[in-house]
Fold this sequence. Notes:
Layout: E1 25-27, E2 30-33, H1 40-48, H2 58-67, E3 73-77, E4 80-89, E5 96-104, H3 113-122, E6 132-137, H4 142-155, E7 159-165, E8 178-183
Parallel strand pairs: 5-6
Antiparallel strand pairs: 1-2, 2-3, 3-4, 4-5, 6-8, 7-8
Amino acid sequence: MTATRTPNPTPPLPETPSALPDGLARENTALLRAPCKTDGYAIYQLIAKCPPLDLNSVYAYLLLCEHFSNTCVVAQSAHGLDGFISAYIHPTRQDVLFVWQVAVHERARGQGLGGKMLQNLLQRPELANVNFIETTVGPDNIASRSMFGSLARKLKANVNESDLFEKSLFGPEAHEDEKLIRIGPFSV
């Protein structure tokens, strides 16, 4: 009698960087992939280590993983999650990808991981109709401004900045103004 093996529905992480599960892309030592709901708490922990990002509830990250995995990306290494981007298609403008949060763990900073995750998103077939990226960035967030500026140059796209959320809208909580940065049009 021959035993049959049932395939594992989610492939395990590769033991060596060269052995990758089908359908997954690797950048340097980080595996870039769509998040799944089992990543929710790890994403929450990552965001907690990445000020000045606003920390949302674990439930919010679980919903992002469950409902918006096609427009979000995690970077996973042997150390755990090194990065996460949450994004979604704008509800009234289907050619706009709104990038909500970009988080890169301290151990992975300075390697261009944020930009690589953004490029990974733009290469997905589900996002083929995206011609613009929008995001909000505080005026003092130099790293994010640099990353989005670099992406715009690679895409040969215009960058426009306008007011979106002034600090008074956040209530008594201390919060900077959030400027809307719009990159595009572009085609990938």
